[in-house]
Design brief:
This protein is of the alpha/beta class. Helix 1 crosses helix 4. The chain is rod-shaped and about 105 Å long. The chain has 3 domains: about 80 residues, Arc Repressor Mutant, subunit A; about 100 residues, Periplasmic binding protein-like II (D-Maltodextrin-Binding Protein, domain 2, 3-Layer(aba) Sandwich); about 110 residues, D-Maltodextrin-Binding Protein, domain 2, CATH 3.40.190. Strand 8, helix 8 and strand 9 form a beta-alpha-beta unit. Pfam families: HTH_1, LysR_substrate.
């Protein structure tokens, strides 16, 4: 069909063969085969060249549209293979907004502008369920995770700060010790939302007997608003706490050993889509360890 389209433009077998980089007899053979398939002559041949028949004009018009569509499809396929096309379904844990995650998403959109990036926010436990059900391609999560078989790539390690009411005696302390907070009322989120992170925080900050939780809130913003209201104190990842900037809250460092939480990108162990490969390449380019490893609870 492409041979005929070139010939319909040149209306000369010699020039068309030259453009196609084939011998003229081979071109004539291809055109005769096409006419047999269609069941009608496409050209009227003469000593000065040839001209299209009525059927030939229809075939030339249709061939042009078909080949243009085929070329566009081929380009989309090449783009998909390089990760520049398709869809990437991504979830963020609620405490991950700001910092490296936003920078990674912005970089992905810059490098892969033709990918339909669908981003949603949810707790780590919900995001893991969605990943295992095939409803997501990847999720930014807070390790440690249950032994799900998912692969995790390390993104960052953040310091945990203690949020205290502005009028609380601890607000005057330069740094807070674990003995300071041992019996303080604590605001957290429900453990089932992110069991690994919840347990990691309580082990680091209340190693002896656990926190005295007086209130549970659905997200960091509501948690900090409760701190501002004087309900209690709350541990919050530094990036999220500073991004929210809730009035009436003071953020305090905790003495060594410094409490921390990790941020990772989790994805199924099966073959990644081209779009996901694009995101993983950006993650692997980050400084520090980011090698893939099966997720396990320590």
């Amino acid at each position: 069909m492409r041979y005929f389209l070139v010939l319909s433009e040149e209306l000369n077998f010699t020039r068309a063969a030259h453009r196609l980089h084939i011998a003229q007899p081979a071109l004539s053979q291809q055109i005769r085969a096409l006419e047999r398939d269609i069941g009608a002559p496409l050209l009227e041949r003469g000593s000065r060249g040839c001209r299209l028949t009525a059927v030939g004009e229809v075939v030339a018009r249709e061939a042009g549209e078909l080949l243009a569509h085929a070329d566009a499809s081929q380009e989309r396929i090449r783009a998909a293979v390089s990760g520049r096309q398709g869809q990437l379904r991504l979830a963020l844990t609620r405490s991950a907004r700001g910092g490296p995650v936003d920078a990674l998403i912005a970089a992905f959109r810059t490098h892969h502008p033709n990918v339909d990036l669908v981003v949603r926010t949810g707790w780590t436990a919900h995001n893991i369920t969605e990943l295992l059900a095939g409803k997501l391609d990847a999720a930014f999560v807070r390790p440690p995770l249950d032994n799900t078989g998912l692969e995790c790539r390390h993104i960052a390690r953040e310091e945990l700060l203690m949020a205290v009411p502005a009028n609380h005696p601890l607000a005057r302390e330069r740094r807070i010790t674990r003995s300071h907070i041992a019996t303080e009322p604590v605001i957290l989120w429900p453990r089932e939302n992110a069991p690994g992170m919840h347990d990691l925080i309580t082990r680091q900050l209340w190693p002896a007997h656990g926190p005295r939780i007086v209130r549970e809130e659905p997200d960091d913003e509501q948690l900090l608003l409760s701190v501002a209201a004087g309900t209690g104190i709350a541990p919050v990842p530094e990036g999220r706490a500073r991004a929210l900037r809730i009035p009436g809250v003071r953020l305090k460092h905790v003495t060594a050993p410094m409490p921390t939480v990790d941020l990772a990108l989790a994805h199924p162990s099966a073959e990644a889509t081209p779009a996901l490969h694009g995101l993983l390449s950006l993650v692997d380019a980050l400084p520090g360890p980011s090698a893939a490893a099966p997720s396990t609870r320590p």
